Amino acid sequence: MELAGLGLSTSNSRNSPDSWFKSLFVRKVDPRKDAHSNLLTKNEESNLYKIQFHNVKPDCLDSYNKLCEEVLPIIHADKYYPCELVGTWNTWYGEQDQAVHLWRYRGGYPALTEVMNKLKQNQEFSAYRKERGKMLLSRRNQLLLEFSFWNEPVPREGPNIYELRSYQLRPGTMIEWGNYWARAIRYRQHNSEAVGGFFSQIGNLYMVHHLWAYKDLQSREDTRNAVWHEDGWEEVVYYTVPLIQHMDSRIMIPTKASPLQ
């Protein structure tokens, strides 16, 4: 039977105007054989990272830093705990009276669980947490994986300042972000400013953190301006900015206990 005036057969519903109209809004999804995290990370390694943000009572920051300097290096140096302190900082510009700690767990989630269980039995660490709690206003953390195309963070001699640039991406855009930055990272290696690049697994999802090191604020300004003279950088910015929902920048000063100085 023909529909009057349309010349379309009712025997083939795929050709109906309604189906054609709906097809404009149907997005074909290609099946994936692996999780995004496996496509973006260094598969031959199993490094898991934890980043901690501690908002400290303003009159307690010096005491908090002193307490951390007494305890955190001991855990870092003790091979009994399969974890390493990558860096520890105070925020200079950004959220004030804030401490940021970055830990690495070689061995992934099993290493994290092992450290947590062992620290529960450590009375000195329990006393540290109790004393630390008196100084905090709030705290939060995230578990992160590192991008395969970034450097692995290694200790640095100072003095340096560090910038932590955090990007909240639109859900579903992490692979696209990784594809662009896999090419873009070479533009940001000239002054050895690239320290590490990470994306969240637990906590705020679709969150990316880029960690940079500079001698000072003027060095940061000069380095960031110079990259605009690189062929291809403008294209990276053009295509990655639409992927971002929100972004934030912290300028941080390493504490005495930080392997990244």
UniProtKB/TrEMBL annotation:
Q: Does the keyword Mitochondrion apply?
A: yes
For this UniProt entry, what's an example GO CC term? mitochondrial matrix
Kindly give the SUPFAM superfamilies that the UniProt entry links to this protein: Dimeric alpha+beta barrel (SSF54909)
Q: What is its main location?
A: mitochondrion
Q: Which GO terms describe its biological process?
A: mitophagy
Q: Which residues form a coiled coil?
A: none
- Gene3D superfamilies noted in UniProt: 3.30.70.100
What is the annotated localization of this protein? Mitochondrion matrix
Q: Which UniProt keywords apply?
A: Autophagy, Mitochondrion, Transit peptide
Q: Where is the NIPSNAP domain?
A: 162-259
Q: Which InterPro entries does this entry report, sorted A to Z?
A: Dimeric_a/b-barrel, NIPSNAP, NipSnap_domain
By sequence similarity, the record places it as follows: Belongs to the NipSnap family.
Functional description taken from the UniProt entry: Protein involved in mitophagy. Accumulates on the mitochondria surface in response to mitochondrial depolarization and acts as a 'eat me' signal by recruiting proteins involved in selective autophagy.
What is the protein name stated in its UniProt record?
Protein NipSnap homolog 2-like
Q: Which organism is it from?
A: Gouania willdenowi
Specify the taxonomic lineage: Eukaryota, Metazoa, Chordata, Craniata, Vertebrata
Name the gene: nipsnap2
